[in-house]
Design brief:
The chain contains 18 helices and 14 strands. By secondary structure, the chain is α/β, with parallel strands linked by helices. The strands form four sheets. It has a six-stranded parallel beta sheet with strand order 8-7-6-9-10-11. A four-stranded antiparallel beta sheet has the order 3-1-2-12, with helices on both faces. Strands 4-5 form a two-stranded parallel ribbon. Helix 5 packs across helix 15. Belongs to the glycosyltransferase 90 family.
Length: about 600
């Protein structure tokens, strides 16, 4: 058979594969169709070429272009638990089946080079596609929808909710919820905007509401109870009390398909850089540290147990603990509460309880390095949302995602794939079978562990800022209005502006101030004289309003912001101004936030 005939057959095979891939494997079908038309035109233009070297180059280029939009693996692999061939046709130990071994001819297939190329695939995030996917339900965003989002803030069951406006490159903040006990972490919920404005100074003007709470809020679940409630809230026409009658684009820390919320980075990415009560360092410091520590543990030295350490209070984790009791050869659940840290001083390794499976309570703790010494790590639902998934992926171990109760996702999870970056099981009872299968298919398990680690290694704080910037650019394109600064909004330019704004007293403030202005969205001019109240930032003496600082529901603190006995109201670090006025602190404040000193 001539070389020309062979290449003709490859072209026909490539065409048939393109049709199949369009139906089953394409990530972005619109781009795939456009690429398909271009490829067909290119082949038609070169169909009379007979130089075998030139034909080989044309066909190889076509294969590479076809593979560019190919979905890595949208289905459960046949030989994995739940797959069509599980237990009927055991694999030979080389992996989950022939699907994993398909290598296109244009790849450099030397072992080391191929590994690097495959891992490089996981180092790039398609923020444009992830943003477009979230905004797909919205054809426009009007002022009425912003008012609807603000109404959602006043339902008094949130810890934090604020309106952020970027006008002319300057950030302005209006607090609607900033409860006292959460003030330590309020700045962490806004820090993404400072990063965005530093990296993307030409960000278009935007007006948005950030709830930044554990769970999404704008429900669209089709249910006999939920759906009528949704229709009453958002009937599609203006409603009494404000709002445009349409569901708002509210930003929350997690999202799911039963809500319309848009994903905002969780506060754990921007934890305080100074010591704080949760003790977790910010992602910018912790991520490289974890990568370095996990790299010191070889795959061969990892312990072949599936491990969870931490809180076991939720019903889902209780089922995990119960399963560990009866499956000690595959699982270890180590129960530990935050309050145990001052009481328990031994790691599980030092008391030789790290290789014993089963369920153990309040005996020991595990350092991050010790957690990474296990080959399999369990990610399961907590009482609220648990943000540990990203930390587990950094270990270079296989993360087993227990889907029972895990209804919400953070933004980066939209760029992860089960079977590629982690493996998933339906519930705790399925964990032992998955562990046994991974042990029997160690090469595949290691590939998943490497892919998950490579994916999270690329999720730097710069990448987080790029995600937010892309989401806001697409969001801004949907706005039907030109944003203008709300009355009573406060300007924010630096991290320390946030600490000064949220501080209840100067002693508290100095625990968190950085005093370096490195986070400012605009550089401080050389030789500029810095002084109070902002010291180079935009802070002008503002404080959160009382109505934002407390739960005003009838069973909580309904009268805490009401006048009593005709006396002026006062609470430290609190404003009693209305939302039309700048929120200066109350007259009874003993500290002068304008001059940064105690009043005489």
């Amino acid at each position: 058979m001539s070389a020309y005939s062979v290449h003709s057959m490859r072209v026909m095979k490539l065409y048939r594969h393109s049709l199949k891939n369009l139906q089953n494997w394409a990530v972005h079908r619109d781009l795939f169709i456009e690429r398909g038309f271009a490829m067909r035109a290119e082949f038609d233009a070169n169909k009379f070429v007979k130089d075998p070297r030139l034909v080989e180059k044309i066909v190889s280029d076509g294969e590479a272009k076809l593979a560019e939009f190919r979905h890595p693996d949208p289905y459960t692999l046949p030989h994995m638990p739940g797959g069509s061939k599980y237990q009927r046709h055991p694999t030979n130990g080389l992996g989950p089946g022939p699907e994993i071994n398909r290598i296109p001819s244009w790849l450099n297939t030397s072992a080391g080079s191929l590994t690097r190329q495959l891992l490089e695939l996981h180092a790039h995030w398609d923020w444009q596609a992830i943003a477009r996917r979230q905004l797909q339900p919205f054809t426009y965003i009007d002022p009425g929808m912003i008012e609807s989002a603000i109404k959602e803030c006043f339902k008094n069951d949130t810890m934090y909710c604020a309106r952020l406006q970027v006008v002319g490159g300057e950030l302005h903040l209006s607090d609607y919820r900033a409860v006292f006990f959460d003030r330590h972490y309020a700045p962490a919920r806004l820090m993404p905007m400072l990063d965005v404005l530093r990296r993307h100074p030409n960000l278009p003007d935007v007006d948005l509401v950030v709830a930044a709470v554990d769970e999404p809020r704008i429900r669209i679940k089709v249910d006999r109870t939920e759906w009528p409630r949704t229709v009453r809230l958002y009937p599609g026409f203006p409603v009494a009390g404000g709002g445009g009658g349409l569901p708002p684009p509210l930003f929350s820390s997690t999202i799911d398909s039963a809500h319309l919320d848009l994903a905002w980075p969780d506060f754990s990415f921007y934890m305080p850089r100074r010591p704080h009560k949760l003790r977790t360092p910010p992602w910018s410091r912790l991520q490289p540290q974890m990568l370095e520590q996990s790299a010191a543990i070889s795959w061969a030295d990892k312990i072949e147990l599936a491990v969870h350490t931490g809180n076991v209070g939720s019903s889902y984790r209780k089922r995990l603990a119960a399963q560990a009791k009866i499956s000690p050869a595959e699982m270890l659940v180590n129960e530990l509460f935050i309050g145990d840290h001052g009481r328990i001083n031994s790691t599980c390794a030092t008391i030789n309880r790290h290789r014993t499976g089963g369920f153990q309570q309040h005996l020991c703790y595990m350092t991050f390095t010790e957690q990474c010494s296990y080959k399999y790590l369990l990610n399961s639902a907590s009482i609220g949302y648990a943000n540990k998934f990203k930390y587990l992926l950094l270990c270079g171990s296989v993360v087993i995602y227990v889907r029972d109760g895990m209804t919400h996702q953070e933004f980066y999870e939209l760029g992860l794939l089960p079977g590629i970056h982690y493996v998933s099981v339906p519930d705790a009872a399925a964990v032992p079978a998955m562990v046994r299968w991974l042990k029997a298919n160690d090469a595949y398990a290691r590939a998943v562990a490497m892919a998950g680690r490579a994916r999270m290694a690329a999720l730097t704080t710069d990448a987080v800022a790029d995600y937010v910037a892309e989401l806001l650019k697409q969001y801004a394109a949907l706005q039907t209005f030109r944003p203008s600064v709300a009355k009573g909004a406060v300007p924010i330019r630096c991290e320390d502006d946030l600490w000064r704004h949220y501080a209840r007293d100067p002693y508290w403030m100095r625990l968190y101030l950085m005093q370096d202005n490195a986070t400012c969205t605009r550089p401080i001019a050389a030789g500029a004289k810095l002084g109070p109240p902002g010291y180079g930032g935009a802070y002008a003496g503002s404080k959160p309003r009382c109505v934002a600082s407390h739960d005003l529901r009838s069973f909580a603190q309904p009268d805490v912001c009401s006048s009593r006995n005709g006396k002026p109201l006062h609470q430290p670090g609190t404003s009693f101004a209305d939302f039309e006025s700048f929120p200066y602190p109350s007259d009874g404040e003993r500290y002068d936030w304008q001059t940064d000193r105690w009043k005489k």
